[in-house]
C-alpha cells in the first residue's frame, strides 16, 4: 500500500470550482486595475482616474457595485473549501494531513511574501498563509462550529459599517495628515517616477497604517480578520457537500442566489453616490462583498447543473486550473504596464482604459491556459507548489495519445 500523500488527480477535480476560480481571477484583475494604476488605496484626491470623463465614472461605478470587495471573499471561500477538501481526501486514504498542510502553508507564505515585496503589495497569498494557522485548528471543529464561527466573524466585520464617518475624523486637526493619506502620496510619487529598486524599498519600509514592524503586524492582522470568516464558510460548504451534489441542494442555492444579489445591490450601490464615505466603503466591503460572493457561487453552481451552462463557462476552468500561476502573472504583467520602470502608464489612462487592459490580459491568460493545459497537467507554479507540498515530483507533461 502506498502511504505517501499524492496530489489530486485530474479526474477527481470538481469542474465548478475550477470555473469559479477562473471567474475569480477575472474579478481580481478587474478590481485591482484601479489599484495597479492609481495606488493601493485608490485615492482619487491625488490621482486622475477620470481622464476620459463620464465613461471612467460609469466604469468605476460598475466596479464598485459588481466587482470591488467581492472577489477576494470569493477567493477566500474557495481557499477554505479547497483546504477542507484536501483534508477529507487525505484522511479518507489514511494519510498524514498535518504534514501536507504545514508544508503547503509554508510554501504559500514564502511565495506570498516574495510577491508582496518584489511584484505587488496588494498580495493576498501571505494573508492566506497566516489565516491558515487559524484554519488548521478550526478544521477540527464539526461543521456546525465552522458555520457559527464563520458567520460571527463575517457579522462582526459587517457591524463596522454602523460606525459613522465622523468617528474617523474625531481627534484629528485640520493640519494633521491621516497615515493612509501620507502613504498614498508617497506611493503615487514612487510608482510614477521611481525605479524598480525604489518601489521595492518603499514596500519594505511603508504600510498604510503606520511605519515599523508593529504597523506591519497590525496590517497583516486586519487582513487575516477580513478573510478568515469566508474561509470557514467555504470549509463548511465543502463539509456539507452542497457544491459536490448541487442537484440535491438546488433549493438552497436558489435562495442564497437571490438573497445574495438583493442585499449586495442595496449595500454596494450607495458608495457610488458618496465615494469618499468611509462608512459606505465599509458597508460595501464587509456587507455587500460577502453577499455578492454568495450570489456568484450559487449562480455558478446552478449554471453548471445544465449542459448549456457548462459549455458557456468551460473556458473559465482552464484559467482556474492554473489560478496560482495566473494570479502571480497578473501582477507581473500589470505592474510592468503601469509602473514607471515598465511602460509607465500609471495615473494616465483613466479607469475605463485600465479596466479594458485588465480584461485583455485575462483573455490572453484564458487562451494561454488552454494551450498550456493541452500539453501539461497543471500550471508551472502549481507543479512547483505540489512538488514541495507532497515531497515528490508530480507528472507534468501529458502522455501522448
From TrEMBL:
What is the superkingdom listed in this entry's lineage? Bacteria
Q: Which residues form the DUF418 domain?
A: 237-391
InterPro entries xrefs: Bact_Transport_Assoc, DUF418
Q: In the UniProt record, does the keyword Transmembrane occur?
A: yes
The UniProt keyword set, sorted, is: Membrane, Transmembrane, Transmembrane helix
Positions of transmembrane segments: 20-42, 62-81, 101-118, 146-164, 209-234, 255-274, 286-304, 324-343, 349-368
Give a yes or no for keyword Transcription in this entry. no
What's the name of the protein? DUF418 domain-containing protein
Amino acid at each position: 500500500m502506498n502511504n505517501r500523500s499524492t496530489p489530486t488527480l485530474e479526474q477527481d477535480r470538481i469542474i465548478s470550482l475550477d470555473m469559479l476560480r477562473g471567474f475569480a481571477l477575472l474579478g481580481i484583475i478587474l478590481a485591482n486595475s484601479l489599484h495597479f494604476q492609481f495606488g493601493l488605496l485608490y485615492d482619487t484626491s491625488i490621482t486622475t482616474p477620470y481622464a476620459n470623463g463620464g465613461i471612467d465614472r460609469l466604469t468605476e461605478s460598475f466596479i464598485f457595485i459588481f466587482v470591488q470587495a467581492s472577489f477576494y471573499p470569493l477567493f477566500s471561500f474557495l481557499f477554505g473549501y479547497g483546504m477542507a477538501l484536501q483534508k477529507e481526501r487525505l484522511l479518507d486514504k489514511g494519510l498524514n494531513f498535518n504534514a501536507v498542510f504545514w508544508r503547503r502553508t509554508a510554501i504559500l507564505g514564502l511565495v506570498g511574501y516574495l510577491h508582496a515585496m518584489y511584484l505587488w503589495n496588494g498580495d493576498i497569498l501571505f494573508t492566506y498563509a497566516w489565516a491558515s494557522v487559524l484554519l488548521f485548528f478550526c478544521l477540527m471543529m464539526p461543521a456546525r462550529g465552522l458555520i457559527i464561527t464563520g458567520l460571527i466573524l463575517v457579522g462582526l466585520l459587517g457591524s463596522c459599517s454602523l460606525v459613522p464617518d465622523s468617528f474617523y475624523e474625531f481627534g484629528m486637526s485640520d493640519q494633521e495628515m491621516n497615515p493612509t493619506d501620507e502613504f498614498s502620496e508617497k506611493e503615487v510619487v514612487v510608482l510614477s517616477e521611481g525605479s524598480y529598486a525604489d518601489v521595492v524599498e518603499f514596500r519594505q519600509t511603508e504600510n498604510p497604517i503606520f511605519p515599523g514592524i508593529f504597523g506591519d503586524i497590525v496590517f497583516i492582522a486586519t487582513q487575516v480578520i477580513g478573510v478568515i470568516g469566508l474561509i470557514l464558510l467555504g470549509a463548511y460548504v465543502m463539509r456539507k457537500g452542497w457544491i459536490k451534489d448541487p442537484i440535491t441542494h438546488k433549493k438552497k442555492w436558489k435562495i442564497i442566489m437571490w438573497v445574495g444579489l438583493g442585499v449586495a445591490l442595496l449595500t454596494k450601490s450607495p458608495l457610488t453616490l458618496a465615494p469618499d464615505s468611509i462608512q459606505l466603503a465599509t458597508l460595501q466591503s464587509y456587507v455587500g462583498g460577502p453577499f455578492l460572493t454568495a450570489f456568484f457561487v450559487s449562480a455558478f453552481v446552478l449554471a453548471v447543473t445544465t449542459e448549456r451552462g457548462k459549455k458557456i463557462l468551460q473556458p473559465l476552468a482552464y484559467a482556474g486550473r492554473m489560478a496560482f500561476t495566473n494570479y502571480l502573472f497578473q501582477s507581473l504583467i500589470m505592474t510592468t504596464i503601469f509602473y514607471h520602470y515598465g511602460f509607465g502608464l500609471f495615473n494616465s489612462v483613466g479607469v475605463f482604459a485600465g479596466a479594458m487592459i485588465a480584461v485583455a490580459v485575462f483573455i490572453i491568460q484564458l487562451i494561454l491556459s488552454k494551450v498550456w493545459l493541452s500539453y501539461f497537467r497543471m500550471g508551472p507554479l502549481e507543479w512547483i507548489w505540489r512538488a514541495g507540498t507532497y515531497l515528490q515530483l508530480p507528472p507534468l507533461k501529458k502522455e501522448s495519445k
